[in-house]
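Look at one record.

>
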Amino acid sequence: MRLADKVAIVTGGGTGIGAASAATVARERAKVTITPRRKEILGEIADAIAAAGGHALAVPSSVTDEADVQHAVQATLATFGRVDVLANNAGSVLHAGRCTKQPMRSGTA
């Protein structure tokens, strides 16, 4: 139980790898805040962690919104008192256009 009594925030913790990461951190006895972007799945992972005897807080947020990130951190601090671990699972892709629209260059880099 390497994470016993630690507090973790797992971004993108609502589905897939993020949800599995949150569950694993909780099994290691850490308290965990999950930050799913989709509100409709907000309680599912937190409820599953609680049902397994863990402690979880679900805070809807997007890592692309600084106010959301600040809110998740503040909610974690208010609930658990500190943050020891950050698992940055969520990602974002900026759309810069189709690669076929980019100019082709010849030569070597």
Summary: The helical segments are 16-27, 42-51, 66-80. The domain at 7-91 is CATH 3.40.50.720 (Rossmann fold).
